[in-house]
């Protein structure tokens, strides 16, 4: 009789454990790939400024681990293409974009007004809250005295802000002529993760593994991207760039 009772208890525990496991299962959230695409507000005549800019692809100013994980690389890559479109819309002729000044050939150096480098400084801030979940099965805990195993889910808030830093250099010798730091208004948004982890994950891990976190960050980053390029468009003045062009020529002539 005692064996029968023990078996009934075991089956009851197994049933409760299976119910508990079923509740933990959630449908996978599909990943929505980021699309960074900026359209300039106005269009000047092609080449109307009579200035030619060598454009170097934008790069992040710091080496945050998450900058190597989507959607951040796509943001930097798209910004190079959209900078080209933005500058063309203001009447500049564009050479590039190049990955670095080392890719420039002699013709680029002697037939350009100046080089433009772009650095992205988002200054991200991550406020993460961890929620603990007991992942030890009821059967293992009661029958085998297994230690309690916890996993953690995430939620919190993310802030983007910082600056876009534009630097103009002379085309032949790379002397710095002009620098402008465009302040970007901070934006903060909440996020809730769907995955669990055995320890506190960094943002790079959450972006790789949790589609819901990725989708939230991607959506907000796309809005911040368009806002950033709107700010650049307001700050780039062809008349001011004529002065930069003159200074670049003077700097290169001194280097000869």
Supply database-style keywords.
three-stranded antiparallel beta sheet, Double Stranded RNA Binding Domain, 9 strands, elongated, single chain, six-stranded mixed beta sheet, 256 residues, alpha/beta
Give your account of this protein's structure.
The protein has 256 residues and is α/β, with parallel strands linked by helices. The chain has a single domain (42-255), classed as Putative neuraminyllactose-binding hemagglutinin homolog like domain (Double Stranded RNA Binding Domain). Helices cover 40% and strands 27% of the residues. It contains 7 helices and 9 strands. Strands 1, 2, 3, 4, 7 and 8 form a 6-stranded mixed beta sheet that branches. The radius of gyration is 27 Å and the shape is elongated. Residues 6-25 and 138-142 have low confidence and may be disordered.
